[in-house]
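Pipeline run #58 for the internal structure catalog. This entry was flagged by the ingest filter as a single-chain record with no existing model, so it goes straight to prediction. Upstream metadata was stripped on purpose; only the residue string is passed forward. Reviewer on rotation: M.T. Logging verbosity set to normal.
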Amino acid sequence: MNMKKTILLSMYWGWTALAAAQPQTVCHQDGTVTFQYKNDQAKEVLVDVQFAGRNPMKRDAQTGMWTVTLGPAAPDMYPYCFIVDGVSVMDAENNQYFPNEGFKNSLLEIPNPQGALPHDIRPVPHGTMEYIHYYSQSLGATNQAVVYLPPRYRENPQKKYPVFYLISGTTDTEEVYYKVGRVNYILDNLLAEGKAEEMIVVLPYGNPYKLLVGSPATNQPQTQFGRDVFSLDLTEDLMPYVEQHYRTINDADHRAIGGFSRGGNQGLSNGLRHLDKFSYLCSYSSFTSTDIPNVYDNAAETNAKIHLFWLGVGTDDFLYGNARDYMEFLDKKGIRSVKEYTHDKFGHTWMNAKYFLSKTLPLLFRPQAAEEAMKNAQPALAATGEEPQFTAGVMARLFPKPIISPEYKTDGIVFRFKAPDASKVSLVAEPFAESLIMERDDDGIWQVEVKEHIHDTFTYYYTVDGTPVADPQNMYLAPSQGFKPSICQHPASAYHFAMMGAEVAHGTVAYDLNKGVATYIPAQVGKNKPISIQLLPGKNDTMESWFKVGGADAIADLLIAQKRCKPCILTTGSVKGAKVLRADDYKTWEERRKALEAVLSQSEGKR
């Protein structure tokens, strides 16, 4: 049996046919991986993968193929990218990618020939992932989150569920615990085996400051917790929204909170400050403040309120010293906690985050199992004096001052890209027939400003000495098959979620992982059955494209709020008698949006 696993198929270089089909990266049965990359312009190519670091690739003079075989590595998921003449590039052949505010990596899956991994996508019933938008009074703008609903959520409309609020780390988006942490698939598998309770999982966006236009903190990692915008939004906006729109059990015994890295800090900080709301606390590769009033100095009362206090960290994590110190602090205060250490998952990584999830999900909302784990908990590992500590210097090294791109101005948009050694950098944007040449400053930052189409939403990318690259500073990436350009949307755009006020009610976009269908459901359906509109993705699109690039849900939300159309269902699935919009019938996303707006406006007259 051939145990090689081809990662993913197809490629899309955008609108200018920049290259021929790329080769595929291949995993072998022995755990080694052959990375392959085709680029005739490149002078030097390296592959940067989490299990092996940066390694040079060798070019075959006859085929022009850059290749290297690395490993073996343990079966797991690993971020990787190619470094082409000093510039980081995603693997255009791989549809799996790491959502992030900054870096853009692809995801490699090394399968386990001996058996299934906790995060594998198995043939079991899958839950639904719903993307929500809600107006946040704390933020003064519309915020976003992702919600996991268990496979049988729709079968019994009377059943209510416990909720786990799970927060990603610094620079991560709300999608990371779904697309990298695979919480949904881990939980699907546990539910199929009867090893976990059915629950709703809410994935908040951990850095809402980035949604504040013009905020000084817009492009800086959040480091303060407690009465910060995230914490206020969580308890005063997101939780009320979830409890109003989903069937939840609303008491501390049925709420859990946790997260990875910064998200672990946010989770513990908010959980410990609100023990009337949360009784299950999980920290993955993190720690939190030792100065939270009425918690640490009241051990008996605190212990009585917590069913599970679970802390995990790798001994090779750069946060290990801080996390170990926090564990020891809890022991000295008499606060009970479960402690888990790893030694072989490359430190501060999502391999650890997934592993910790697989350990904690079976304990959530199972008081007896949680109590058994707490009783058997061991004290913190003894200090050696050599533990790494997270300092301001480490923070500055990990998170240098960012380049702002795109920078939205009143009368234009500035695009920037850092490539000190490049000879030529151009902006390729959907509305412009020709690429725009960028100019380099003394710091090696290339820049160009556009003043046309600034209120349109469009896809774009850079070409760096002929190599296409998504904007590493832009968290919004088109989920296309093959090459994935960035998405530009000016805050003054008509269909920009963040700028929609409290008067606009938002529907949800549900991704059915069993059928591979995306469906928009309006906030209020009304008495009559809503009409359905089928949105067919283009040849290089995915089921996400009509919503993440096309903004179909934002268009529907706004037109419904303005009473320019009736509530309707938008779906990529087949619906008998539905009006069909084919993406490939239009050249640009702007044309597709106008076509959808016209169809939605026509629906008002059909009632």
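catalog note: The two ends are 59 Å apart (CA to CA).
catalog note: The CA atoms of residues 27 and 33 lie 4 Å apart.
status: ready for reviewer M.T.
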